[in-house]
Amino acid sequence: MTTPQPRPAESAGATSAPTYPRLNARTLRFSLGAPRTFTIAPDGGRIVFLRAPSGTDRGIELWTYDVASGTERRVADPATLLTDGREDLSPAERARRERSREGAAGIVGYACDQDVRYAAFALSSRLWLADLDGGEVRELPSVAPVVDPRPDPSGRYVAYASNAGLRLVDTHAEAGAAGGTPGERVLVGPEPGETTVSWGVAEFVAAEEMDRVRGFWWAPDGTSLLVERYDEAPVPQWHIANPAQPDQPPVPVRYPAAGTGNADVSLWLVDLAGERREVRWDAAAYPYLVDVSWTSYGPPLLRVLSRDQKSAQVLTVDPATGTTTVVREDGDPAWVEIVSGTPRWLPDGRLLTTVDTAETRQLAFDGEPVTPAGLQVGAVLDVDADGVLVSATTEPTEQHVVRVGPDGTVTPLTREPGVHLGRASGGTVLLVSQSLDHDGTVVRVLRDGAEAGRIESRQERPPFTPEVTLLRLGPRELRTAVLFPRDHTPGSRRLPLLLDPYGGPHALRVRSARAAFLASQWLADQGFCVVVADGRGTPNRGPAWEREVLNDFVSTLDDQVEVVGEIARRYPDDVDPGRVAMRGWSYGGYLSALAVIARPDVFHAAVAGAPVTDWRLYDTCYTERYLGHPDEQPDVYARNSLLDAAAGLERPLLLIHGLADDNVVAAHTLRLSSALLAAGRRHTVLPLTGVTHMTPQEVVAENLLLLELDFLREALG
Question: Region Disordered: what ranges (predicted)?
Fold first, then answer.
């Protein structure tokens, strides 16, 4: 089978107005220009945020919003700070952005002091400090590459990671001073010969699978820090090569594949003189450091997790000695879920966590549930004197913001269907909303319960509005979105059916937001009925639903099969069950390849992007959570692998993989291709030179969508 070519009328070089695929790539899926990454001052008077200058400019800028006057002010513009206009990203920063799926450029992150008077950020591997009162932005002395700079609570010092160590700079130091001057120094770092040790950054599995990208935390009084140290020596070394540039040596990476060694992680108390003291817990039993919280409400809190993830502890730390005390233990026969924003102290000293029943994840104060059954808690967003701001929902397609008061009173802050997030501090509440009723992101500022203003969004408006029907299908009430061509007349023609899922744990595709369905609508307009369905294992439907994938990823395909049958019954005159395909990326790629291998009676073609094909090649934390240890459950891994089932392929399959992918490495696709070849099964492989697990490059992202479309049209006839 030959590689399909994009049609000339829609190629990247067309001289007409940009096509949707080009706009989608240029705007990073229409996300550029939306305000993001908010910080509210303790008095509620100032909001700091990031925003690109337009919906097609990737150079993110730093802004503030004055709540009293409702005015915005640009604080830092990368285009003016960098005299040559070019951004130099270190390998460490590129890896950090890959873990957080960051496709933009410029100022992509920042951190503030306690009173939100200063903001520190890295730009082009250099260190910058913005005075949010006066508006001055100056470069501080630093040693490149600068990663994750954070001011101390007073704003006098900034700590940042660089070259495997944690460094400290006095903000009174003059710009342009060389590293090692009295104003800038190493605070803590590897000893001579410790080539696999890093300080002050999160190890791979924490950043990729635990939603923890930080590696150090300031004490509330600014006199010391908690700093992560990890040693990657136990982690196998892999090599990512660039076959298109054979003169370049392969890049060595440490990748903790399932069943192999993890990084050895420890936590240290470090004072401003560089003196350090190890924080000790039973790391042999609980090797995963899930999160750290250090606020003025109580002593430092740690959450640690066993390797099999069936047990967890919450610990307090004595800052004087480094000793820890267990204050809470959790266990689950499947796994203990990681919930962002927990554990935390409440202002009155009670411990904030979540507790799981079979059907509901609830917020808990000192172990007692305070949110009602049926309200699924997704994350803790903020904690202040007014209570706890929580992301929660009773309907999986929606996400709402509620406030839980100190007395446990639950007050919804959003009610309209949509996907909402929020921040709160000092009487100011920020609500960030997407919906099926409007394009883009709406950011509302509430003061004392009333809307006080809005922060402007500069997103590009999509060239069309998705026409989405949300359904609950079958006895399992599978949340499903259905999209027909916008010019389709019911009953006029039977269309091929294209499933477009992610379909695995920790991610939702069926959301009450237009942006979630732009690509799906464009595909539908090319002559498909496009269906997006969230099956078992996906969030927002309770712990029991999430745990249905334990030892069994293959079962997630059963839900997609059920959806095909339900759609065929609901739309007998509009869909053709004899022409069914699936496309997906990452877990969705696994599911798509599985579909044509395991169920050729239902699925007639598939596009699998960056698929996991052999779970022994994926990382420890994610894979062992769901499938256990491969040495203890080899049959589980064999049952969920695509390699052993490859001989079952009877339908057209297009495999796409970035050769620079360090998350789902290209070996997944290459091994499946080898197994298919050994079984004599025809298939197509599209390797992407220099592309990682993301595809932010404009031409690559555009033409991939066009190539997928042509492949599907050819395969389905």
Answer: 1-20
Residue 299 burial class via C-beta count within 10 angstroms: exposed 0-12, middle 13-18, buried 19 and up: middle
Alpha-carbon separation of residue 618 from 233, 572, 690 (angstroms): 18, 40, 20
Q: Pick the closest to residue 124 from 96, 157, 154, 85 (CA basis).
A: 85
Mean pLDDT of the region 674-694 = 94
For residues 101 and 578, what is the distance between their CA atoms, to the nearest angstrom?
37
Q: Tokens 């337009």: give the residue.
A: 54
Q: Which amino acid is at 447?
A: R
Q: What is the pLDDT of residue 513?
A: 98
Cβ proximity of 50 and 105 under 8 Å: no
Q: d(Cα 262, Cα 629) in Å, to the nearest integer?
A: 13
**Cβ-contact 301, 316 below 8 angstroms:** yes
Distance CA 109, CA 515 (A): 23
Amino acid at 404: V
What burial class does residue 680 get, using C-beta atoms within 10 Å of its C-beta: 0-12 exposed, 13-18 middle, 19+ buried?
Answer: exposed
The string over 135-166, giving b where at least 16 C-beta atoms fall within 10 Å of a residue's C-beta and e elsewhere, is eebeebbbbbbbbbbbbbbbbebbbbbbbbbb
Compute and round to an integer the Cα radius of gyration of the chain. 25
Residue with tokens 């923890």: 212
pTM higher than 0.90:
yes
Rounded distance between C-alpha atoms, residue 690 and residue 565, angstroms: 40
| Nearest Cα to Cα of residue 117 among 154, 90, 158 | 154
CA 120 – CA 138 distance, rounded (Å):
10
Q: Decide if 225 contacts 218 (C-beta within 8 A).
A: yes
Report whether pLDDT(194) > 50. yes
φ/ψ (deg, to 5) at 301: -115, 135
The string of pLDDT tens digits covering residues 617-663 is 999 999 999 999 999 999 999 999 999 999 999 999 999 999 999 99
Q: Which of 151, 135, 138 is nearest to 72 (CA)?
A: 135
Looking at residue 31, its amino acid is S
The pLDDT-based confidence of 94 (bands split at 50, 70, 90) is confident
Kindly state the percentage of the chain with pLDDT values over 70. 96
State the number of CA atoms in the 13 A half-sphere of 197 facing the CB: 15
- What span, in angstroms and rounded, lies between the C-alpha atoms of 384 and 525? 47
Is 284's pLDDT higher than 90? Answer: yes
| 338: Cα within 13 Å, side-chain hemisphere | 24
676 three-class SS:
helix
Residue 182 binned pLDDT confidence (cut-offs 50, 70, 90) = low
Helix (H) or strand (E) holding 344: strand 344-345
> In this predicted structure, what is the pLDDT of residue 8?
38
Cβ neighbours, 10 Å, residue 331: 11
Distance CA 219, CA 295 (A): 7
Distance CA 78, CA 107 (A): 7
Query: Is a pLDDT exceeding 60 seen at residue 13?
Result: no
Q: How far is CA 81 from the centre of its chain?
A: 29
CA separation for the pair 353, 28 (Å, rounded): 35
Is residue 546 pLDDT above 50, yes or no?
Answer: yes
* Domains parsed from the chain with CATH numbers: 32-187 (2.130.10.120), 468-716 (3.40.50.1820)
Mean residue pLDDT of the chain comes to 94
CB 51 within 8 A of CB 61: yes
Distance CA 392, CA 360 (A): 11
Structural contact between residues 389 and 381, judged by C-beta atoms closer than 8 angstroms: yes
Return the structure tokens found at 261: 């060694």
What is the pLDDT confidence band of residue 175, given thresholds at 50, 70 and 90?
low
Strand ranges in 182-318 using DSSP code E only, listed in sequence order: 184-188, 197-199, 216-218, 224-231, 237-240, 251-254, 264-271, 276-279, 288-293, 301-305, 311-317
